[in-house]
User: Which sequence fits this backbone?
């Protein structure tokens, strides 16, 4: 299984998509002789699907086609060399994956055929068991359906612990702590901007373009920051490097 789970899509507004992960992603594409990818853009609300595909083509140097052009989306996944899942709104994305009957085809493609999955922001959220730790608003009246479950632990992308002066609402730490208080057997991995988890076979690696760590939230345990994925031993069934 090959997963790239990125907190966000780019380091700055004027940089290329997936810029901070280019070395790792392009290395994989070259080693697998991957020349094309299917983009799942359903999370996008304020952006154009085809424009995002063109951006990714230029950034990655491969052909990228948006799945919304496919007559039968499941067949597009069956024929895909690589799956790209864009950021945006996680609620919209997860509901569309169910409505388009793509949950099982993606699971089979990734787990059984080893098709690489590259997801950022919302695309990272839906790779976990559920989208309950998303930062997004439920813009559609959808129940909290199960997500893809490719990665066994909840993730909170775009994590920040910056204290905003004058803000009287709950912090991100407050919200994630509340999640763990209600769901005492579950953990949440908080990924800062410019960071990602890379799962390749049985190996789990963490990378941060800014040299920052990730946090792990779990009920009854002190929340700490780590840079070594060995901190996740016991949470994920992978050999951590």
Assistant:
């Amino acid at each position: 299984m090959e997963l790239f789970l990125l907190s966000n899509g780019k380091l700055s507004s004027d940089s290329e998509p997936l810029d901070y992960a280019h070395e790792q992603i392009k290395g994989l594409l070259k080693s697998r002789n991957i020349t094309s990818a299917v983009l799942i853009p359903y999370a996008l609300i304020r952006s154009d699907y085809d424009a995002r595909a063109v951006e990714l083509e230029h950034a990655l140097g491969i052909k990228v086609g948006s799945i919304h052009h496919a007559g039968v989306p499941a067949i597009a996944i069956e024929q895909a060399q690589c799956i790209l899942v864009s950021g945006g709104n996680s609620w919209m994305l997860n509901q569309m994956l169910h409505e388009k009957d793509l949950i099982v085809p993606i699971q089979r493609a990734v787990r059984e055929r080893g098709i690489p999955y590259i997801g950022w922001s919302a695309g990272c959220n839906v790779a976990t068991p559920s989208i309950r730790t998303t930062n997004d608003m439920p813009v559609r009246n959808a129940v909290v359906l199960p997500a893809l479950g490719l990665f066994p632990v909840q993730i909170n992308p775009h994590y920040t612990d910056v204290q905003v002066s004058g803000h009287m609402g709950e912090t991100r730490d407050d919200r994630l702590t509340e999640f763990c208080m209600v769901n005492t057997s579950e953990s949440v991995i908080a990924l800062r901007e410019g960071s990602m988890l890379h799962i390749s076979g049985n190996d789990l690696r963490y990378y941060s373009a800014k040299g920052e760590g990730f946090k792990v939230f779990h009920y009854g345990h002190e929340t700490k920051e780590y840079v070594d994925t060995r901190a996740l031993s016991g949470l994920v069934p992978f050999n951590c490097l």
In short: The chain has one domain: 2-240. The chain has a mean pLDDT of 94.
